[in-house]
Each structure stands twice: as C-alpha cells, then as structure tokens.
Design goal:
The protein is mainly alpha-helical. The protein is about 80% helix and about 0% strand. The radius of gyration is 27 Å and the shape is rod-shaped. About 30% of the residues are buried.
Length: about 210
C-alpha cells in the first residue's frame, strides 16, 4: 500500500495520531499481560488448595501456603484467615479485611484499562476526521482547478481519505477485543474472590454425590 507524497498536513497528522493510538494499544496490552502474570491473576488452583486446608482443619498449613503464594486469591485468603483467627467470634472482621485486600487487588488489575477504552472511542473519530478532511481537500482542489478534472486523481484522493476511517476502525476493533478479554479476566477474578471469601467464612455447600 502506497500513499501520495502530497498529502495535506492535516491528513498526515491524523495518520500519525492513529499510529500513536496503535502503539498505545500494544503498549497497554503488553503491560497488562505482564502485570497480570506478576499479580498472579488466574491462579485459582493455589487458592483452592489453601481453602481446602482451611476448611479441613489445617489453618497453620493454609496460612503458610497463603503467605508463600503469589496469587490474588492467596493474598485475599491470607487476609480473611488472619482476621478470623485474630477474632474468632467476629467473622465480619475477617470479611472486612479480605474485602479491603480484594478492592486493592481489583484496583491494581483495573489500572490502565481506561486507556484502551479511550482508544476504542477515539480511533474511529480520528479516522472519520481524516476522511472528512481528505474529502474536503480532494473536492476543494477539483473546484479550483482550471483544467478538466482527472477522475484518477479524484479517486486517489478519495481512496486516501477513506483509508483513515478504515485504519481507525481496525485499531478500535483490536482495542475493543483486547479490552473485553482483559475485563473478562478481571470479572472472573472478582467473582472467584467473592466465592472464596464466603467459603472461608461460612463453608461450602456440600456437593451432591454422583450416581
């Protein structure tokens, strides 16, 4: 794909802005993947092991695993178990400690997500702006031209103008799918946190035996 060398400065600016948005999307995606890995997002197996030890009367082992665990669930379970052991008669205290840790973890997981949402909204508008500017320039040149209009030059200008909209939509779609995937992981972690806090305090519902 080649572009005319005499593009107006405004169109070049739009292309540069779209390129910056694509770089921003890639940067945020890499940052979030590294962050999720460091936070231990999705480490549900370790959380299940800690919860099983706690519910089966092995609180010391459960707390030891929670302290050594590097996952979100391990830190939340460590907080709720510490609260319950410190004040056995006040389960609300352990629940409150766990919720404070959970809110902190969820806030960290949600960091930079608004940047992706901004890309989803800005990229199509920038692309449309580039198209409008390109169309104005193409038809403006046609209006002031004293010679017979060359359909090929007009088509080239319109093609270049429409390219900005296509680029903006493509960037927005990629950012949307990435944001949806990341938000899905955060929501899954939030629901799992709610479940393990409740299970650690109130126990689990007995599963029916399979026939």
């Amino acid at each position: 794909m080649t572009f005319p060398s005499d593009l107006p400065v405004t169109t070049l600016t739009v292309f540069a802005a779209l390129a910056a948005l694509s770089v921003l999307t890639l940067t945020v995606t890499i940052f979030k993947m590294i962050q999720f890995r460091r936070l231990g997002v999705g480490g549900h197996r370790r959380g299940e092991e800690i919860l099983e030890d706690w519910l089966n009367g092995r609180p010391d082992e459960a707390q030891r695993k929670a302290a050594a665990g590097r996952t979100v669930l391990a830190r939340v379970l460590g907080a709720v178990m510490s609260g319950l052991r410190a004040r056995p008669s006040e389960p609300g205290y352990g629940e409150e400690l766990a919720r404070q840790v959970a809110l902190t973890e969820l806030a960290r997981m949600g960091a930079r997500m608004r940047l992706l949402e901004a890309v989803v909204q800005m990229a199509p508008m920038l692309g449309l702006l580039g198209t409008v500017i390109g169309m104005i320039d193409a038809f403006g040149n046609l209006a002031v031209s004293q010679e017979a209009a060359d359909p090929r030059l007009l088509a080239s200008g319109i093609w270049t103008a429409l390219t900005t909209t296509a680029a903006g939509l493509a960037i927005a779609l990629v950012a949307y799918f990435i944001a949806s995937w990341l938000e899905g992981r955060i929501e899954d972690e939030r629901q799992t946190i709610e479940l393990v806090i409740s299970s650690a305090i109130h126990g689990r519902i007995a599963q029916p035996a399979r026939a």
